[in-house]
Amino acid sequence: LVREPDAPEGYAHADERVGGLSALATLEITSTPLCTLPAALLGGLPQLRELRLPRNALLALPPALFATADSLQVLDLSHNQLRTLPPSLVRLPRLEVLHAASNELCSLPELGCLAGLKTLNLTANRLAALPEGLPTTLSVLHAADNQLTALPASLGLCAVLSELDISQNALAALPPEIADCAKLKTLKCVSTATVC
Question: How far apart are CA 82 and CA 189, in angstroms?
Fold first, then answer.
């Protein structure tokens, strides 16, 4: 981390020199005052499989951050202060796990083109809706403690979905397409307006 001498108290950003560690497979920066990342950080990390940035103070991510992160499989952005996710997120062809819980997300990019995504954790945000196009490869979807009033019909296309947590939302009803989720083993809808 780098703290600029004239920056506000507690402000820090990731050191760009990390981007030169070409053999790095896992980068974890946790429980720091990290507020921002350099846009080119991942460009020099062709082997990076896991990027774990939980419990920091991230406010936003550079729009093109993930433009060259083709090998990324696990992305943990949980417990930050993010309001949006960058559009370049959808350019991660190998992404399998996305943790974005406990942020301030109000909207999401279309995630349907993340063809390998298996786990999506969006718990404890400010989401009023999920994208209509969800990845059909999802097996775990956690969206508890948001402001959801409906679930997208495309949820029924998630043929391998085995775990769905939609607790603590304002859902009036489950979509009829949920019946198409034949592999669903766990459905949590605690403290919701709907009866599961």
Answer: 25
Tens digit of pLDDT for each residue in 103-155?
A: 999 999 999 999 999 999 999 999 999 999 999 999 999 999 999 999 999 99
Residue 106 and residue 111: Cα distance in Å, rounded? 15
Rounded to whole angstroms, how far apart are CA atoms 69 and 61? Answer: 14
Q: What does 5-49 look like in DSSP terms, one character per residue? A: TTSPTT-EE--GGGGG-TT--EEE--SS-EEE--TTGGGG-TT--
Q: Is the model's pTM score more than 0.85? A: yes
SS3 88: helix
Kindly give, in sequence order, each residue whose CB lies less than 8 Å from that of residue 1, ignoring residues fewer than 6 positions away: 12, 13, 14, 15, 29, 32, 33, 34
